[in-house]
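Re: the request from the purification team.
They wanted to know what the chain is likely to look like in 3D before they choose a buffer screen. I agreed to run a prediction and write the result into the notebook, where they can find it.
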Amino acid sequence: QLQLVESGGGLVQPGGSLRLSCAAPGFTLSNYLIGWLRQTPGMERKGVACMGSLGDNADYVDSVKGRFTISRDNAKTTVYLQMNSLKPEDTGVYFCAAYSVNNFRGCPGWLHRQDYDYWGQGTQVTVSS
């Protein structure tokens, strides 16, 4: 089955940047819609960004628009979340997730869904001075 391996989290000062990676060793992500979700203590996981299986038409929650960018590498094996101008409220555990669907453009409504087929292990992002 598909495995998602996350990396790139850490401690960063406000205004700093981090790039999270979500790798699927031995697999191509061409047949998967990808989401990035964030969880804070006592809260359910909420969508931050997503992209369709075609690697286009990304969507972002309002609080990160203009600061976060989701992308996919040329080999279609790794998805990234570039996070710039980080704020303390960006703190949380970030999960990547995959939904099996072929030739799907965009991710309409998926910022508000959690019924993904596969999940990464999560990586901690802490924004603090």
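For the purification team: Residues 38 and 104 are 23 Å apart (CA to CA).
Please add any questions underneath this entry.
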